[in-house]
Amino acid sequence: MILVMRQNKLIAVMSTVFAICLMATSAWAIDRVEVKVTSEPIPRVVQCSKAGGFSLEFDSQTTLEPGDVIKIDLPNYFNGDQVTLCKNIDFVVSQGAGAAYDTTTATWNLNGTGWAAVPLQVAGQENPFVYPATTAANAAPNATGNSIIFHVKGSNGGDRITITVIGAAGDTLQVGTDGDAKLILKLFDLKDNDGDVDTPAFSNPGIWEDADGDGVYDEALDGNDNALCIDVFDGDTPKGETTVFKANMDSDDLSGNDKFTFIPSDPQIAHIKGSSEYELFPCKGAKADNIPMPEEGQNSTSCAPFDYESGAGYCTAANLGRRIVIKRNTAFSASEKFGVRLQIVSPSEVYWGAAGVGYNTMATPTCTIASADTLTATATDANGNAVTEFATGGTCTVTSDQDAKTLTTAFGIGFANETQTAIYVDMPQLVYTSAVSEGDTVQVEVSLLKQPCGEIFTTTIDLGTFGCQNTASDALLFPYFTNMADGDGWWDGIVITNLASFDGTATIAVYEADGDRGEQEVAVKANSQYVSLLNTILGDFSMTATAGSGQLGDSSAYIMVTTDFNADGFAMMGDGTQAQGYLPRD
Fold it and tell me: Contact 277/332 with Cβ under 8 angstroms?
């Protein structure tokens, strides 16, 4: 019994000692890096969303030396699709003076001013390096040489970010030997180089980029470029299911061996929102009208430019309630900035006629507001090449230097307060060539872009169909039917044929011998037929009585059909043993 008690006491003591050692080890360890990441909410099935910012905390006595590489790999998910970067990443982080890269010799020209002499934190600045405040002498960095920097790089469309330690031969940087000492490297947190200082001194600690392409990383990185922007297409995830995306951390030293231990090694960088935050606000009566074919003319001018919001250049100026209003289910923040991208999806012979994109913000979504401000957009053709000239329309030709297919604005939409919930987008006019075909539908993809990454909401708008035939109604007379209710033993059928290449509407008006009248609208697809028995129209569609005091369907009748398309038809009657049919009169 005594032996057992002593054994249990020994085990308890050993367990306590082990726990203390484990706690001490977890507090700091050489080459151990604690990874802290904010997991950002991102929408489903849109491009270029902001992922989380990284904080890498290197523990006491960890030594950083040239050739060390930290790798952040973006994840695969579901059916093997890869999360990828949607913006290039290329900057250096230094304690001052940056660096230059010689592309000819593939070497770095380093201008570091030293680590030990630089303050731990410059007051009022967003220094990406942080050392915990301490008076211990051995908490300061122990540097050999003056030129250690971090080069952070990733390519648009790629799935890896590398953080490479750069320095001259023999240079090292060791985190202080005090147990609480840390070197904290902060990335992708939207912080600019040094806080509110617009033109920081090159000797200041911070983040630098080569904005002018001269190979010297001497321009202060704008905070909006200090972001991790990723493409995620999450169409396979069931709605309501939350999906998380975790990166993979790894490292190499100069010999190619794994060097650092990352805690955790798979930090979560983003998660899918449960539902969409944005939606297109429906504008009633915003039916897209038709656009004249070149030979149809418009005010004696062929191929006149057309404008979706105003109705100018369409076959008719009706339906002027057209508005593109993007609504958010929460109010916008005064710190948020937005832009717009407009891309002509089809047909290939339609182009933008100007670069100005109108917009307005509103507290309550409405379809009657007019454009108040204009964003200047950059234009590109179908191949992504810059376009600076625009066709004015009316000539039915667009030259190769006027073929603007996409307009992209800067992040110029902001909010003076936090009561706004919607953005109205007013597209510029469009032009077209004589190569368009009747029945072609003009479609534009409208995307709302959010700083710093880009697309957060996209929808496709039909702007109209080429061909004015649907503005001239057609009429078909069916001179005789037995009663619609089949009460006399005869059934009656009607066929309405749409000969146009666009969908339309037919109005069926019934005139009965006893004075009762009725009317019903039916949809007829392009190049298709509407086929129905009259008793079906009477019963299933609840034909509306327009005159008479009796019962619709109990008397013989004639029918007049009016359409907004070129139409034809057929009538048929039968009693089970005999049948007859006829064509309608125009």
Answer: no
* C-alpha–C-alpha distance, residues 259 and 470, integer Å: 72
> Rounded to whole angstroms, how far apart are CA atoms 527 and 505?
13
Q: Give per-residue pLDDT as tens, 186-217.
A: 899 887 755 444 455 555 667 888 888 877 77
Q: Name the DSSP class of 501.
A: S
Q: Cα–Cα distance between 58 and 263 in angstroms, integer?
A: 11
Place of tokens 């973006």: 74
Sign of CA dihedral 108, 114, 116, 119: negative
SS (H, E, C) 248-274: EEEEECCCCCCCCEEECCCCEEEEECC
pTM tops 0.85, yes or no: no
Q: Is the peptide bond before 205 cis (omega within 30 degrees of 0)?
A: no
Residue 391 CA: distances (Å) to CA of 351, 400, 487, 552: 8, 10, 64, 57
Which pairing describes strands 373-380 and 406-409: parallel, antiparallel, or unpaired?
Answer: antiparallel
pLDDT for the residue 352: 96
Count of C-beta atoms within a 10 Å radius of residue 577:
5
Amino acid, res. 501: S
What value, to the nearest 5°, has the Cα angle with vertex 250 and ends 248 and 143? 135
Is residue 583 pLDDT above 60, yes or no?
yes
Both tokens of 135, joined, read 């008076």
Q: Is 439 exposed, middle or buried (0-12, 13-18, 19+ CB in 10 A)?
A: middle
Question: What's the CA gap between 441 and 458, in Å, rounded?
Answer: 19
